[in-house]
Specification:
The protein contains 15 helices and 34 strands. It is an alpha+beta fold.
Length: 703
């Protein structure tokens, strides 16, 4: 029996009497709810129920004879006029934008396209239901026990970016039946690795329901990374280990609960800038058939075409209340129902394009910041897209952190031994105040990284002088060359111990620089164990050993070094600043809580020193931190001296005089026995001169 039900909340909401269904569409002339008693793509009966009520452009109805586990979709009747951006086709089964679970994969063929493949303006009448996944009604109850959000302060946060499947797919201690799943991520062997590494947050590549592109399937590949979303409230079903329909929801909840119990936050990478439906030649899976001109930004004078600032064929239209509301509903759902601790927004600049141009006062930014549900969570922007003025590093408002692409580019160039970078390096080491100071922002606005999922791994960055993406099937034309084309010796494997050691040292140098810099460090998962992709810098389609962690060949020395570098950061408050520190000038010793940059002779840098184009070595002195801990307790005054020698020659370095502090002891080094964590050099006196090897980082703390 159907009753009018309610227009809100959108989606399928079970109650004690049945399920309320609600779907937004301004262009619909009629909406049919399609109920299935089969699995995805099966031949079971389809029962169509017309939703007779329409309130505020929401079509709704309450059914008493259904409940959790019900499979469903929609058919939307309305105008077909692609030249005016109207693409309704009731022959196509459509996924509910607010579905909380989706089951199955697309069977690619003419059926899932609203238009005829040989005539894009002509409507295709074939039924897509046998080729489409199903939405599922879910029960939201879950035993969270005493689970609580960690709320680790940003200045204390160390992010570990990883893929749900890749981290456990080959781990020998993870049972075979859960490898590569949400449950695999939560297995004690994986959790113990993360805790032992010392990171505080796990950032997951997309776990919204996503689509494997037809062209990848044809090449025997898949959309491994998952940047092809179609369901923003639905956890991806491909990562569940159970055969139970909608089991991915509870499995992800259990994973979040387990990570929280280990003291780890969970940040999810969200892709709201575009969807899996592509451009005017793409499939009709959901939004395109529900209300194309509402959900997508169309070209003003050519509405058959999509305004594309993402490079994927379409862009979500966040100036319209429907997609903006969906984004907000998704964010709130993942916080309240899935207990996640933060979000990383893919190509976030697109979400600020209120009228097509970048707008720092867009509705999206305003809505996110004012929402009380989102107030405690971490918000991280990838501050660029491919549109005009798309590179917006430093352009997001207070409350937002950003992937700092300028940090990555500068640090790579420094360790490539390029000249003229000392001034910029000083900015990057101290939280990029040239980018973020002011407007209520501090060092924690900068998410610092040297590698990420998109590009070379750390091992490959220090081993290859060009990309090797041949396995992607695009003649090695894909993947970005800018900033990635760099090595430290001979490409590929080598038996030369000198080259091998140089590569290892460069990996340590990059990690050390990352972890001693002010801001929020992000480590690419697998870099700590020497993970290689054999030179592939765009492994988005490689769901195989190319991308999976190789737990059989762990670089134990690198893993140990990374643990110690993370431990150094966590034990030195001066490296974890909420506010920018003042600097010393003209040789004047810095005060407690301040910083200073010193020359190799131990004297403070002068204006002339900064202009020395060939200089490639620098010392950063910090007198500790006057800031209290987040709980108000005083922080100890922990002096620290970071010595970076990126040049190809050894240098003589003199520790600063007694007025800058007393005796010193090596806390971390990227060379020799100190790189292996062994005792060796003992104490250094103030004003003592030592040789610092080429291409090395040495960190001194108080003796």
């Amino acid at each position: 029996m159907q009753s009018p039900g309610n227009p809100f909340p959108l989606g399928a909401t079970p109650d004690e009497r049945g399920v309320n269904f609600a779907l937004f569409s301004e262009v619909a002339e009629a909406v049919e709810l399609c109920l299935f008693d089969d699995g995805p793509g099966g031949d079971g009966a389809e029962r169509r129920v017309e939703l007779r009520e329409a309130s505020y452009n929401v079509w709704h109805g309450h059914l008493d004879d259904v409940g959790p586990g019900q499979r469903y979709g929609y058919r939307v009747h309305g105008p077909w006029d692609p030249s005016h951006g109207l693409r309704c086709n009731p022959a196509k089964l459509l996924l509910d934008p607010h579905a909380t679970a989706i089951d199955g994969e697309i069977v690619w063929g003419q059926e899932v396209f609203g238009h005829r493949l040989d005539s894009p303006d002509e409507l295709d009448p074939s039924d897509s239901a046998p080729a489409m996944p199903r939405c599922l009604v879910t029960e939201r109850a879950f035993d969270w026990g005493d689970d609580r959000r960690m709320q680790v302060p940003l200045e204390d946060t160390i992010i570990y970016e990883t893929h749900v499947k890749g981290i456990s797919a080959t781990h020998p201690e993870v049972p075979a039946e859960i490898r590569g799943s949400y449950a695999g991520l939560a297995h004690p062997a994986i959790v113990e690795h993360l805790v032992g590494l010392g990171v505080t947050a796990v950032e997951l590549l997309p776990v919204h329901q996503f689509v494997h592109d037809s062209q990848l399937i044809e090449r025997g590949l898949s959309n491994y990374w998952g940047y092809n979303s179609i369901g923003y409230l639905a956890p991806h079903d491909g990562y569940r280990s159970t055969d139970r329909p909608a089991g991915q929801v509870d499995e992800l909840k259990a994973t979040v609960k387990a990570l929280h119990a280990a003291g780890l936050e969970v940040i999810v990478d969200v892709v709201f800038n575009h969807t899996a439906e592509g451009n005017h030649l793409g499939p009709t899976l959901s939004f395109k058939g529900i209300d194309n001109p509402a959900y997508y930004r169309l070209v003003d004078d050519e509405p058959w075409a999509y305004f594309d600032t993402t490079g994927t064929g379409n862009s979500f239209d966040v100036s319209h209340s429907a997609p903006l509301g969906l984004i907000m509903d998704s964010l709130r759902y993942w916080v309240t129902e899935l207990h996640v601790d933060g979000f990383r927004f893919d190509l976030a600049t697109t979400l600020t394009r209120q009228t097509g141009a970048v707008d720092q006062h867009s509705s999206f930014l305003d809505m996110v910041v004012q929402d009380p549900t989102l107030a405690p969570v971490k918000l991280i922007a990838e501050p660029w897209d491919v549109g005009e003025n798309g590179y917006q590093v430093g352009g997001f408002p207070a409350r937002w952190s950003e992937w700092n692409g300028r940090f990555r580019d500068c640090v790579r160039r420094v360790w490539k031994a390029e000249p003229g970078l000392l001034g910029e390096l000083a900015q990057r080491l101290t939280g990029s105040p040239d980018i973020y100071r002011g407007g209520g922002r501090g060092p924690t606005a900068s998410i610092n990284f040297v590698t990420a999922h998109d590009g070379f791994t750390l091992a490959d960055l220090t081993s290859y002088d060009r990309k090797h993406n041949e396995a992607n099937g695009e003649d090695n034309a894909d993947g970005d060359d800018s900033g990635d084309s760099w090595n430290c010796g001979v490409e590929g494997p080598t038996d030369d111990p000198i080259v091998r050691e140089l590569r290892s040292r460069q990996q340590r140098n990059l990690l050390a620089t990352l972890l001693v810099s002010h801001g929020v460090p992000m480590i690419l998962g697998g870099d700590e164990i020497g993970r290689t992709q054999a030179g592939n810098n765009n492994a988005y389609c490689q769901d195989n050993e190319t991308s999976w962690y190789d737990w059989e060949h762990v670089d134990e020395a690198l893993l140990d070094f990374t643990r110690r570098a993370v431990g150094l950061r966590r034990s030195h408050p001066t490296l974890r600043r909420r506010r920018y520190a003042a600097g010393a000038a003209d040789g004047r010793p810095a005060q407690r809580g301040e910083i200073a940059f010193l020359r190799a002779d131990g004297a403070a840098m002068t204006d002339g020193d900064w202009q020395e184009h060939s200089a490639k070595a620098l010392m950063l002195w910090s007198g500790g931190s006057a800031e209290p801990e987040s709980d108000g307790t005083p922080r100890p005054d922990r002096r620290i001296l970071v010595v970076l020698n990126a040049s190809e020659v050894d240098i003589e370095m003199t520790t600063p005089g007694p007025e800058w502090g007393g005796r010193w002891r090596i806390a971390l080094s990227t060379v020799g026995e100190w790189a292996a964590g062994e005792a060796g050099a003992g104490e250094w006196a103030a004003g003592e001169t030592r040789t610092i090897l080429s291409r090395s980082v040495t960190v001194l703390g108080p003796a």
